Amino acid sequence: MDKKLLIEKALEAREKAYVPYSKFRVGACLLTEDGKIYTGCNIEISSYSPTLCAERTAIFKAVSEGDRKIKAIAVVGDSDFTYPCGVCRQVIREFGKDATIIVANSVDDYREYKLEELLPHSFGPEDLDNKK
Ligand code: THU
Is 8 a catalytic residue? Predict the structure, then answer.
């Protein structure tokens, strides 16, 4: 897996962030199990609640194109190591139980986690199949 490429693409995607309210830009780049790449940025809406995080923009782009398996996702924000929010962690969980999450400041300065580390004891699709 080319982690630096994912970070570069996330940095590029961050340039597209539409953030007139928070002015806080986030970019994400997702790698599918098939080796495809989808990018996303955060998109803010004046009534606030429809705002979409960069990670979910990338994930929904992938899923809407038929790609449902996340191998890895790189995230680059405007703070020192911007971590995915709780909602995005849950959405990553849906399509990438074993996904690698790369939280980066730059191509040379990044941290790497498994989804399980950032969302331990998670609830997921399998739970609905394992009803008592
Ligand atoms: N944001 C993301 O895009 N991803 C995250 O995981 C954290 C938060 C965005 C949402 C909003 O546009 C801005 O950052 C400030 O919360």
Answer: no
CATH top class, domain 3-128: alpha beta
Task: Residue 24: name the closest of 10, 43, 9, 7 by CA.
Answer: 43
61 CA → ligand 1 middle, Å: 17
Per-domain residue ranges of the chain: 3-128
- Inform me whether the pLDDT recorded for 132 exceeds 90: no
Catalytic residue among 33, 55, 65, 116: 55
pTM of the model: 0.96
Torsion angle, CA of 59/64/69/72, rounded to 10 degrees? -30
Residue nearest to atom 4 of ligand 1 (CA): 53
